[in-house]
Structures are given as C-alpha cells and as structure tokens.
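Aim 2, interim progress. The first record below pairs a target sequence with its structure tokens.
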Amino acid sequence: MERNQQETANQQPASMMALLTLIALLQGLALLYLHQAIELHYWPHNQPPWLFACYSVAFIWPTMLLLGLDDSNIGTLVKLTLPFALLSALLGYYVGLQVVPLEHIRFNALLFSFIVTMAIATFKALMYSQLWASGERFSYSALFLWSWRNFLTLSLALLFAGCFWLVLVLWGALFQSIGIDFFKELFQQRWFYYPAIALANGFGVIIFRNLSRIIDTIARLQQALMKFLLVVLSLVSLLFLGALPFTGLSPLWESGGSSLILWMQALMLFFVNAVYQSDADNRPYPLWLHRFIYIGVALLPVYSLISFYGLSLRIDQYGWSLSRYWAYLIWFLLALFPLGYWWGIVKFRDRWTQQLSRTNVAVGLVVLAAMLLVNSPLLDFRKMVVENQLQRLADNKVSVDEFDIHYFRHHLARPGYEGLQTLKAQYGETHPNLLLRINALYADRVNDLPSSSRDEFIAAITLLTDNPPDELLTVIYKQETRSHWSMQHTQRYFLHALDLNQNGELEYLWIEKRRSYTEIKLFFQQDNQWQSAYIGGFRTDQDNADKMHQAILAGEIEIVPSRWHDLVIGEQRFQVRQND
C-alpha cells in the first residue's frame, strides 16, 4: 500500500513539473552567476567564505527540492530542507574561512572533503526529510527505498544531462564542418550552457521520478546480486579471522592492514543492509544460511578491535594526521553498526533483524551529524592535527629539522598556515634554518622575489671558518634564494674555508644538507669575481652519511693531493680513476 502511494505521488502533474523546471533553471542561473563572479572578479569572488556558502546553497537546496518535491508535500519538505540548506551555508562559510588568506592556502584537499561529506549529509538528510514528509513510519526498509530512488534518479539524470551536452557538441561540430560556426560558439558560452545543462538535469529528474517502478526494479536486481555476494563475503570474513591466529598481525600492518579491514567491514555492512531491508520475518536465505550470515555479522566487532589496534600503533609512532582522524571517524561509524547488530543477535537470535532496522535508523542520524560536524569548528580535524603536531615538537618527540612543514602547507589549510607562523615566532631565532624553509614555502613566485632577507639567510649558515668575505655571502645569498624548492628542503647550511688548489688564496666549500641528499659546491674567485662549481654529493640513507655529517660539523675537512693530473685529448678531459 505504501509503495503504491509513493508511486502515485511520483506521477507529477503539469504544475509540479513546471515548478521543478523553474527550480532547475534557477539553479543553473545561480551557478552561472557564481562562475562569472570568479571570472570577472565581482562579489563574492574575493571572499571565499561567502563564495563557499553561496555554492553550498546553490547545489544543495535545489537538488533536494528536485528529488523530493511532489504536490502533496511542498510545504512540509520546504520547511524541512530550508533549515538544512541554511546550515550548509553556515558550514560553507566556515570552510571558506579556512582558505583565507587565499594567496597562501592550498585548499584542494579541503574542498574535496567538504564536497564528499556534504554530499553524504545531503543524501541522508533528504531521505529522512522525504520519509517525514510522507507521513510513513520510520523504518529502514522505507529509508532504503528512498535512498536508492534518490541515488538512481540523480545518477541517471546526470547521465541524461551528459548525453544532452554531447549531442550539443556533435551539433556544433557538424555545422562547423560545413562552415557555420554559430552553434559551436553559442554552445561554448557560459550564459548558455549553465542554464541548458541545469535544465537537462532537471528534465532528467522529472523523467526518472515518473519511472519509479523501473527504479525500484533496478534496486531489487542489485539486492538479488548482493544476496549471493554477501554469502561469499561472509565466508571470506570468517576464513580471514580463522587464519589470523596462525599468521599474526605483523604481516597485516606491513600491507596497510587497517584500511583493508575497514574496507571489509564497510562491504559487509553494505551487503547486509542491502539484503536484509524488510521485516524480521522475511528471510532471504534458508535458516542454516541465515545463521551462517549472522555469525559473520556477530564477529564484525572483532574487526573493529583489530583496526583500532592498528590505527593506535601509527598514532603512537607519528602522532595524529588528517588521514588518521578520518580513519578513526570511519572506524567509529563502522563500529556502531555491528555493535547494534550484535545486541540484536544476542537478544533475538534468528530474529536479529528486528534490531537491524532500529540500529540503521539511529546510526544513520549519527552519520548525518558526523558529516556536518567535521565541517564545523566543533570537529575541525585540521586544527586538531596542528595542535597535536606542535605539541609533539614541544615534547621533543620530533626534531625541528625533521618537522614536516610541507604537510602543514599543503594539507592543513588555514590552521596549517597559522601553525607555521607560530613555529616562526617560537623557533625562528633559535633555528633560523626553519625560518628560511617556511618563508620559502610562501615565496612570491609571480614577482620572483627572495623569500627571506639577506640577514635571515646569513643567520642560518653554520660557519666552520670565521669571517668569510661579505661579498661572498652576498653572492651565495643571491644564488641560493633563486631556488625556492631548494630552500624549502635544505635543513642545514655549512661554509668552510680551505685552499683547495694550493695557490695561497682561500676557496670556500658550501654544503647543503637536505633530508635525503647532501650537496657540496665550491666558491672561488676568478677575475675578481666569485664563481661556483659543483663538486658532488651523497645520499643521506647511505651507511657513511652520519659519519660525514659529524665530520662536517667538526670541521674535519682535509685536502688530499691527486696523484694524477687530468688528461686532455683534443677538447676532451679525462680523469684517472683507480680501481678498488
């Protein structure tokens, strides 16, 4: 009865179709305005908080209305989705604040996580809103129906919009081939393709919403496929747990075991929820196979314990990172489901799926809340990573030279930027090399200006010889500050005087120690000008690297005369190399 009511509701009258078309058109115009604002530099292009907020509303609210509105729930659905759209705008505003100052922030990773989490939150909020607006009883089977309808309808609508765009491309190319460029030029205009593609997407939603029986048939087909896959996956899960006592956990950690276990849990939960979506009395398997499945489900908390242990090991070694916070959040959400199922198995045995519906509805709300919180100041992983890593530095768990400033620059957005400024203030005087490296990260590559002053650069040099010529230091400063990449990765600089060619005039060894490589140059005077020549280098991971660094610090640098001079034949120079 409920299914028939939903199918009837999805047969939209002309007035509703006109309303959905208008919503799609307005969404296209809103996205066009925002794109033009970025291109033509008018509001809100230079204000990322407002830009993120506007994009959030432009994508989220019209999409929720397109997928959820029908002539029986307009008022209720608008009341439910509008607050969520405003909340998404507030979260977008906060996330936009994390890319200020824009010229110093890399925000690709931030934008990706925001899009993914808000897409999941919107998906969850929409199906709960649809269920509430329909007046149905909250159950997992109803949520499952709405979720698959929304997912398949939107996916097919986007596919339809993509095909529509390909037809336009073909149209323009065909007419261009006979000398008519009008259509190709028209279809390349933003004022045309933004509304056109948005309308195509809207039409696609209308078309596929009216084909709810086909959508439901597709959902039932995937359920039938997953009935078989769930049995195989349960067998794999049990065999894997049975093998662990014989192999131990060490090989698992060496091959990225924590993520593999999380994937195993996620797939098991997905297949279980795809197969067991009806009431407790409707069993898709024979009783013995049903019990085999729920034994695999009952053992899922063991996977949670193993993955928790593996994640904890990495945190003890290296502290918190964005990926580890995300892994713990995913672990927590995946652990909630099997705990609820386990309680149902203990309490109801063969009728454990009675608890499945309650668990899924409740934990689904937890997932929705988590996806919103990670984009708010209440659960900002980037700030938490910065605090943890700075504390590890203060506790001497990591050295200043080994501190990963590039991770702060490229992955932590504004908190990373502020964290690096804190590092400069706290350690800039005592560790001038760190100051140079941080400055180089934010170098002005447009105007190609030095990222640090001459005094800052000279303060970072470890002088193994007193009173080097001032002109030499200026030459080294100008030469080395041309390469921002080199300054970002160089941990120590050394300068040592010696008479390498035994002519009574001093030359200077310039040594740059990086994380993985140490480079040596020679500075010498020629025609009253300081010149440089590359001598060589060695990898830091070589066995004798530590001894060489200790010798450099101690100034144990000697000149050893060569037994053989170079040989020149024509224009070719040869050196005698003695076999070991």
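The second target in this work package is listed in the same format:
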Amino acid sequence: MEFRKLTDALSVSPQISVQDVPKIKEAGYRAIICNRPDGEGNDQPTFEEIEKAAVEMGMEARYIPIVSGMVRDEDAETFGQAMTELPGPVLAYCRSGTRSTTLWSLSHAKDMETSAILATAKKAGYDMGGVVRRIVNGGKTPTDSPDARFDVVIVGGGAGGISVAASLKSRMRDIEIALIDPADIHYYQPGWTMVGAGVFDPATTARTMGSLIPKGVHWIKAAVAAFEPHDNAVVLDGCRVVKYDRLIVCPGLKLDWHAVEGLVDTLGKNGVTSNYRYDLAPYTWQLVQKLKSGKAIFTQPPMPIKCAGAPQKAMYLSADHWHREEVLKNIDVQFMNAGGVLFGVKDYVPALMEYVKKYDATLNFFHNLVAIDGEAKTATFEVKEPDQERRTVEVEFDMIHVCPPQTAPDFIRVSPLADAAGWVDVDQITLRHKSFDNIWSLGDVMNAPNAKTAAAARMQAPVVAANVTADILGGSPQGAYNGYGSCPLTVERGKIVLAEFGYGGAIMPILPTWLIDGKKPTRAAWILKEMLLPPVYWSAMLKGREWMAKPEKITGEGAVSA
C-alpha cells in the first residue's frame, strides 16, 4: 500500500485491507477515515472490518462515506470536523484517494490559498481542477453562471498585457477585451537598475494602472485564482467567473524572496538590498555611496530570471562609482553566480570581462545563495561545481545585492496551462498554447527559450495580437516570434554593452552596427537606455505603436520571413 502525504496531520491512500492496518499503525498513524461506501466494489472490506482491526491496534476509525463524484459541501465540513476530533496523524482512504483529497481540499478552502491547496494535492498525485471553483468559493458550491464574458481576456497588466491589449485594439476596434490585474501601479522595471545607480528618480518608473489601460479595454481589478480551459473560464478570487472566447496569459513571474532563508527579515537593512524591488533600488544607491571599504557581494540565482544581466549590471555600476570616487582599491567586489558562465551569449563575454578586470571583481561560479544573516552580515552559498562534492560556504559582507530566485506565479504552476516545470506551455514561434487552441501567452511566464526581458515582450505582443486577430477572422497564424531579446549591460555610467539576440544565441541587432556595435561598450547605447527607451516604453509599446517591432510573417508550414 502507499501513503500519500498531504500534510503532517493527514495522508491519503487508495483502498486498504484489514491486513494493512498493522502497517498503518507501524507507520505512526493514530486514526483512519474511510471515505468509500461499503459495497462499492466486490473486493473491498467493510468499514466494520477495518474499524475492528483499528481498535485492536489501539487506533480510532471514522466512517464518512462519499459516493464517487458526489462530494457535498456538508461532507467537507464533516471531514474537517473529524480532523479536529481524531488523534493525528490520520490516514484517509477511498478507492483511489481522490475523494479523500477532495474532502481535505474543500475543508481547507477558507484557511489556505487556492494555489497552495492545488499544489499540495498535485504533489500527492491528485488533480483538484474539477473542484477549483468550490475551493475558491470557500468550499461551497457556487452558481455555474459566469459574471462576465468577453471576446478576449488578458491575464496580467504588465508590459506584455497592456501592450498586447493596445495592439489588439489597433487591429480590431470593436473587439471586447478584459484585462485582469489587481495592481494599482504599473512599473517600468528596466529602470530600476538606473535607480540603484542614482541615475533615475524612482518616481519616473511608476504610473497608475488606470492611466495605462487602453481606451475601450475593461479593467477587472482582481486576482486570478484558477483556470478552467476546458470551460473557457477564468476563476477570480471570491469565485467570480469570467468567460472568454480567447485567452492571453501574461502575468509575469514570481520573485521568490522566501526561497533564501533569512532574506525577507533583512531586506532593506543591514546592507542587504536588491534592484528587483521598487522600494529597495534607492537603498542600493544609498549603500553604494556610503561604502568606502569592505566587501560587496552581488548574487545571481539559477535561471530562468527576468533580465539575466541585471545582477551584474548592479555590480558594474556600483564598482564604477567606487572607481570614480577612488575607493575601489579598498573594496572587495565578489560576483556569486549559481550558473557556470558570466553571460549566456558568448559573443558579449569578452567586452564584459574587460570590465570584470577593470573593477578587479572576483567571479565565483556555481555559487547559489541559500541563506543570509543580516545582523551577522554573513551569506551562505551552496556550491555545486561539476564533478565535485556539494558543499556550502559562508561569506561575510558589508553590502550585498541579492537577485531572488524566480518561478512562475503559483496560480500558473498548478494550472492545466503549465508544463512540467510550471511555465505556460506554448509553441515558441506562434506563442499559441500547445494544448488549448484559443490560448496564447507572452512575457516572462511562458516557456519559449528566450530571454525574459521587456524588449522580448515588446516583440512578442504584436505576434500574439496578429495571431489572435487571424484566429478571430478564421485564418491561420500570421506572426512569428524569433526569440528576440535585449539586455543593455550597463558596464559603466555612460557606456553600455547592448546585447541583442534570439533563439539559440543568434545575434540580432535592430540598429546598424555603425551606430551601435553591441559587442563593444558604447555611449550611443547608454543614450538609448537613458533617454530613448523609457519614452518608447510609455508612449509606443504600451500604446500599441509597433515601432521597429512588426512581427515576422509565417509564410507556410512554419516557415518564417522578415
């Protein structure tokens, strides 16, 4: 028999036998709940037989029979009550364990996040998608009628979501679009590196969400709890249901600050900072200005992360300031990278290495930050070098810039839209979902093998808009995404190595090399980053103006033409 652990208090299992009861006792369980009605199968023992064996072993037993597919709201309440009354840990069983898991899920609907319930059940091997609306509704059966319906529903009001909404509206003015996002503020996140270097004022990177939603697009200010793609429905917190003809998913990714032990407790103090948060980027600049000697650490977690160059951008700009202030010789600059290379596209590495040498920075590869003690000013790294024993090292610091581990949002990872790694599963050319023909995705949340940058989203939005439009008109996909992404690597104040590349690391410069040679640090690239890209973002990209971002064409059988 198998015990599938849901929590420390409860495990579930398929049908057990009388002979299994001693093994259950030996495994540490103190009570058994039977959720399978007697006589459902010809080979199952009665509850009375199981109860007798349990009592003989000094255990308690409870009978809460559930007809398959008929879990009532009151059954979940009964199950929850039994869990408070019985000594734990408890083993609950039915034919397969699904009914027991369903009862547990519904009984915790009021005290656990929906994504946490779905993830726990999924880890044990059970899919709770069939009762997700009831979970969202606090364990109660909701009405089946939708609260609203739209031609297109867009999940996520970041760079990708607003851009694709605007691009769609520019193509089809009469289309009914809803954009779902609970945030009040929209951020220009590429600017936070510059905030952390004292170049941008943080206020210039933020605008109200309401001011950016395209005219004619309905803004649903709510969080998504779950997806029901087979029913063309998005379930919101509070169990409101929004139906769609076509769905675009682009909620960004999750910064998992809690994945590093002790990090949350010390962020924004004790010399611990990060340009990955709006409120912390100014603290980075404060620390950089204040530091005159000591050790400065810059970390990079395992991929994927948004803007893979951002961790080292912080290092370069900080070291450049110390160089200009003539204190760099007193500062030990350390770059701790969980990966094995400085940058994933090798063509740009030589130019970057010149600055690593200039700033006398030490590169520590295969070093992943796992814990931090802010008061003691120590950081612990797990080191996993090839063909070497795994080990941990503790490093002292005076300042540490942390890039947090990053994953798809919880409600994406546990949804039917996700691949095995938790990202939305799309065709990398059309950005259409591989399993659901009326769903597309763009931005950081989908699994195409491209860099997760705003520049990538700028190219993806017209592709998705073109393909959704073609689908509405009854045609085949028209737009092709070539994997383009851009990373302006700020190697010093006034110069940038402008990395532009597509799938497979292919170099893809948009501007002519006589203007900006991306393999070299240039002043022109800095002007682009500082002066031109912000207005392009606010006034072009988010307005559906596809300047230098027209999608490539699919000419037939997956062929792509410029």
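The chain has three domains: 4-136, 149-253+408-561, 257-407. This observation will shape the mutagenesis plan for the next reporting period.
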